[in-house]
Amino acid sequence: MLQVEQLRKAFDGFQAITDANLSVPKGEVVAVIGPNGAGKSTLFNLITGHLQADSGHVRFKSREITNLAPHKICHQGVGRSFQLINIFSSLTVFENIQTAVIAKHHLDRKLFRPAKRLLVEETLGVLESFGLVEFRNHSCNSLSYGDQKVLEIAIALGSKPDLLLLDEPTAGMSPDETRRIVNLIKKLSQEEGLTILLTEHDMDLVFDVAQKIMVLHQGRTIAQGLPEDIRNNKSVQNAYLGETG
Questions:
Q1: CB burial readout 10-28, b (16+ within 10 A) else e
Q2: In whole angstroms, what is the distance from residue 35 CA to residue 13 CA?
């Protein structure tokens, strides 16, 4: 579904991404791991158009999307959550989801239609599937950190993407909140067949949910494969997992 080939990005002479290669098969959960500063968030920003690549290719469903604007990539079927929670804090939980649903149906340009009446049932369906119906009229600021993170993922899925990118989905979470996100990722993958690409520092989570793992080190892909192959890869052990035996 997603193919990244020889992607490169420099900032003022610093080569943040030097040779990133990645393959994400349809219906699988793929994790990108690597030390702090390896370039994981930069890679996600390049895939989703928030940064412009210097060279290389990003292809989504065999179509070139390299350096397209983020909204165009989103409309092609790529959704994303961020390391830092990215929600509309001034809107209610319902309005946050409704905004994404309206955009998916390209109704955000219908200036003379009252937004509150648009796609109410579909919005409620998203809220119900994420266990957020009881908070529908709540201000986003009143939610717990874990509920805000779930809401952000729900917003990303309100646009009904074919591919969902999750950037550090459990950062700053308690063990209980982390388990909730793990269960959500598994549900989206196993029950709904969603293709997911994620970055994560929690290796227990990565090896629990991912069917494939790509390892990024100093902006370069050094390995990609099945979890057990990655666990036993000497280059990965030396560069990231901290095992040299």
A1: eeeeeebbbbbbbebeeeb
A2: 21
* Backbone dihedral angles phi then psi of residue 20, each to the nearest 5 degrees: -95, 130
pTM: 0.84
| The two three-digit tokens of residue 7, written as one number | 């992607």
- Element of type H or E holding 194: none
Beta bridge partners of 59: 3, 64
* Tens-digit pLDDT profile for residues 15-65: 999 999 999 999 999 999 998 889 999 999 999 999 999 999 999 999 999
Rounded Cα distance, 163 and 185, in Å: 13
CA distance 82 to 234: 31
Q: What is the pLDDT of residue 22?
A: 97
How far from chain centre, in Å, is Cα 213?
15
CB 103 within 8 A of CB 88: no
Q: Report in angstroms the alpha-carbon separations of 153 from 63, 80, 132.
A: 25, 8, 12
Q: Is the pLDDT of residue 227 over 80?
A: yes
228: Cβ contacts below 8 Å, ≥ 6 apart: none
Q: What's the burial of 243, exposed, middle or buried (CB within 10 Å: 0-12/13-18/19+)?
A: exposed
**Res. 11: pLDDT tops 70:** yes
Q: Are strands 63-64 and 55-60 parallel, antiparallel or unpaired?
A: antiparallel
